[in-house]
Amino acid sequence: EVDTEMVAVEGEHSAMAACIGAAAAGARVVTASAGPGIAYMVENLYIASGMRLPIVLIDVNRALSAPLSIHCDHADSMLTRDTSWISIFSENAQEAYHNLIMSVKIAEKAMFPVIVNYDGYIVSHSIENVEVMDDETVRNFVGTSGIYRIPYPLLDISKPVTYGATAQPDYYTECKYQQHVDFLKVYDIFREVAEEFESISGRYYGFIEEYMTEDAEYIGISMGSSFGTLKDAVNALRSQGRKVGAIKIRLYRPFPVKEIAQALSKAKGVAVFDRADSFDGIGGPLFKDVASALFHNQNRPLIHNFIYGLGGREIHEEEFIRAFDRVERLEKGVESRDY
């Protein structure tokens, strides 16, 4: 229980506008949306990050129209990837709960807003056990919220500030440069908060999670709820003596470039699983991020993209196994690649 005010607005664009005003005034702000609501918010997402406001947004990942779908994919998250919001993906309800707690502290240390993603229906509407922490422990971890907890609160009349000023061409770049440099500091802040959270929860949440990758020749990469199924596929192939592994991306923005490059430094083939398509002839958004991370690696594994699970379509262990099979055939030259 917290001292909270809920503001009812007419739409998600207005919801984020209200969050921006409240956060600028010094309130601790959390909101939630999904799918089309995220799309409607996007203009104000840029404003929130440009003003360096530590808002936390829960995105219950949902497909975008048309055709109309109320089920899961990551198209809504991909609308936010270049907004300068920190973006964290959750595999299950437990991880979503922990990510939310950590995000409050990450946002306030970094002075950037945070999106906590978890898959609609698959996680949001499923029933599963969650270990809930007591209020005092969580409150002590995130700290109490004071009206002037941000550096330059809008309502501190003793130190007047301007929010939302116009920047002409001679200064706009300087603002974005500061934003760029500070966004790179998120890596250290995320790691610091994760280590502190481990001390109260016993769980450590890194940028990525590796599963049987130490000697893996072929590695699959996914985000969100499908990772459990991907691990099942790895277990099945390992029982056949095949050297495969899996990686889950937890921190999506800023992207864990160094960690991915290191984890794939000995791989022969990589399958990147995207729950969204970029429709650009290259591949899904996660695929391009992973490919870019490998650019400076001495080892250049074959990397192939698979688009899956759009509009809530289920993904099964057998389909992941077929993906591993195809990557191996491509890497060995048994099969030619078609795009």
Give the secondary structure arrangement, pairings included.
Elements: H1 12-25, E1 30-33, H2 36-50, E2 56-61, H3 75-79, E3 86-90, H4 93-110, E4 114-119, H5 135-142, H6 169-184, H7 186-201, E5 208-211, E6 218-222, H8 227-238, E7 244-249, E8 251-253, H9 257-263, E9 269-274, H10 285-293, E10 302-307, H11 317-332
Parallel strand pairs: 1-2, 2-4, 3-4, 6-7, 6-9, 9-10
Antiparallel strand pairs: 3-8, 5-7
Helix pairs in contact: 1-2, 4-7, 8-11, 9-10
Q: Would you kindly provide a written description of the structure presented here, covering whatever features stand out?
A:
The chain has about 350 residues and is of the alpha/beta class. The protein is about 40% helix and about 15% strand. It is built from eleven helices and ten strands. It has helices at about 10-25, 35-50, 75-80, 95-110, 135-140, 170-185, 185-200, 225-240, 255-265, 285-295, 315-330; strands at about 30-35, 55-60, 85-90, 115-120, 210, 220, 245-250, 250-255, 270-275, 300-305. The strands form two sheets. The chain has a five-stranded mixed beta sheet with strand order 1-2-4-3-8, with helices on both faces. A five-stranded mixed beta sheet has the order 5-7-6-9-10, with helices on both faces. Strand 3, helix 4 (about 95-110) and strand 4 form a beta-alpha-beta unit. It is globular, with a radius of gyration of 21 Å. The model has no long low-confidence stretch (mean pLDDT about 95).
